[in-house]
Prior knowledge:
Distance between the termini: 46 Å
Bound molecules: nicotinamide-adenine-dinucleotide
Strand order of the largest sheet: 3-2-1-4-5-6-7
Amino acid sequence: MSGLLAGKRLLVTGVITDASIAFSVAKLAQENGAQVVLTGYGRLSLVERIARRLPEPAPVIELDVTDAEHLAGLADKVREHVDGLDGVVHSIGFAPQSCLGGGFLDAPWEDVATALHVSTYSYKSLAMAALPLMQPGGAVVGLTFDATKAWPVYDWMGVAKAGLESASRYLAMHLGKQGIRSNLVAAGPLRTIAAKSIPGFEQFETAWAERAPLGWSLTDQEPAARACLALMSDWFPATTGEIVHVDGGYHAIGA
Length: 255
Ligand SMILES: NC(=O)c1ccc[n+]([C@@H]2O[C@H](COP(=O)([O-])OP(=O)(O)OC[C@H]3O[C@@H](n4cnc5c(N)ncnc54)[C@H](O)[C@@H]3O)[C@@H](O)[C@H]2O)c1
């Protein structure tokens, strides 16, 4: 088997449609020699249907990242398909409606707690659940939306992403001794289910169209997926706690 990820075994979370960033990651990973196991949340039969559109059939394991039993059983379920993991992709985010679209000042703690549990804490939970299957050289990769700034309408999801960025650095610190890396890809706006659930998401679309030096496609998940693959490959062996921007260069440009 040839390709950037030849022989690597990956666990990919976050496929819900074929527009999911995770779908592009899984597809490109298979095309580049990896064996892929997916996890699905909630609508398992839908995820299984989408999984059949991949170049190779990929098994789907049920995983709600807030469910302690699912997390505890994950390693054994993955072992039914592969004998270890070289890479884990966290492509998960959720915030209740009150937390988005300008509701920052009014969102109740219960809703904020849900956003942080699913979108931030789960990065550590997923990594720990997969850890028994990992060896030195392994990598965990997640997806963020540049959290160094406050964005209109992103509100508590922005706070959750700031936490995710920090959590990735802490994971890098704690898992470094075991030779395991943790890195994030900061993607520009992409039209996925998660994005469509943000009222006012169009504001990002216009901003990127006007300012990204390289231009930006709202419907091309491949650049972000390619960066995820690169970070899980053997070509970033000494990089951890890093955030790679895949945003057409938007982050580098002043207003
Ligand atoms: N779309 C964008 O503009 C954009 C930009 C930057 C970063 N991101 C991030 O990329 C990641 C993937 O999102 P996407 O844009 O591909 O959207 P998506 O809607 O296709 O994927 C989000 C996934 O999160 C999963 N999920 C939600 N709650 C879960 C739970 N409790 N347990 C397990 N899984 C759960 C959903 O099932 C879904 O598969 C997210 O972290 C998102 O914040 C997206």
